[in-house]
Amino acid sequence: MARKVLVLGEVRDGSLRNVSFEAVAAGKAVSEGGEVVGVLIGESVNTLAQELIQFGADRVVTVENEKVASYTSDGFSQSLLAVLEAEKAEGLILGHTALGKDLAPKLAAKLQAGLVSDATAIEVAGGNVVFTRPIYSGKAFEKKIFTDSFIFATVRPNNIGVLEKDESRTGNVSSISVDVKDLRTVIKEVVRKATEGVDLSEAKVVVAGGRGVKSEDGFEPLKELASVLGGAVGASRGACDAEYCDYSLQIGQTGKVVTPDLYIACGISGAIQHLAGMSNSKVIVAINKDPEANIFKVADYGIVGDLFEVVPMLTEEFKKLKV
Ligand code: FAD
């Protein structure tokens, strides 16, 4: 059944996050040949509309308002509900990011709609749009369909994939004015933690360190490897608790969930809570001194050895490949 689907483009530091393009691809699948309408909320966001179209949106609706220049759940939910109402859309897709995790349940409650959160795959089978999502910390997957006509989902970054960018694609960009009011929170200032390099949640390569790195300085070889591979550095909670790195790097049940193409675990034992955040990575390489370490059970490639010897060797070899 062809339907009109709205997809929220998520803007960070003036650019669209990659998960926005995955959401467009998801919207395309959910629309079943209908229309995919990108939505951009913020200040001066219309300059980004063309990029959403090039990645597959048919057209874009913007809500330009200084009151939504920074994300608040009140401001964004009012804006998105206004667009849904104006467009009479039958579906909505957001990224399963910090923003999406905050916004989607609130919208679902307001719309009295069902929500499939954290979808990792979408297919159309037997006349239904079927969503796959991990459960029990990624140890199993469930498939869900909507019995209602309205389809609402958040998609996990790095799983759905993006459609091929077509720079010749064009589409209409319109704006609607929303009377954003009664905000219960107002963002006065955004102070970013100084994070270097690639965004961990969306990185294609993650080099993660555990308590085995032994100190803050012990992360240096991992940072170098990540930089050579164009990836991001992550960590186990063990490393965060030991104050070797910031908690923003923590991967796992109580940290970030990542699904990169390549995950290199260095000096991480592989506790179940850590696996919950990375076991769905496409290729897992584990480096650990202990051949019995649990991480080897989920690893595609295991290297038994001292990470301070192995990681620099890998860095040197990857550098050679780049020349
Ligand atoms: P360790 O278990 O101490 O492992 C260190 C590993 O490094 C060992 O396997 C050792 O053989 C290896 N090693 C040491 N030196 C070297 C070397 N030179 N070269 C190579 N290998 C070396 N953990 C998370 O990661 N993420 C979470 O989100 C999370 N949430 C949790 C939530 C709850 C409610 C609880 C109870 C726990 C949670 N944990 C989480 C903690 C988790 O149980 C583990 O304690 C933690 O993951 C262990 O971190 P680690 O593997 O770095 O440390």
Automatic annotation (TrEMBL):
PROSITE patterns: ETF_ALPHA. It holds the Pfam family ETF. Keywords: Electron transport, FAD, Flavoprotein, Transport. Its cofactor is FAD. Binds 1 FAD per dimer. GO terms for molecular function: electron transfer activity; flavin adenine dinucleotide binding. Residues 5-195 form the Electron transfer flavoprotein alpha/beta-subunit N-terminal domain. GO terms for biological process: fatty acid beta-oxidation using acyl-CoA dehydrogenase. FAD binds at residues 211, 236-237, 250-254, 267-274, 288. The keyword Amino-acid biosynthesis does not apply. Belongs to the ETF alpha-subunit/FixB family. This is Electron transfer flavoprotein subunit alpha. The lineage of its organism: Bacteria, Bacillati, Bacillota, Bacilli, Bacillales.
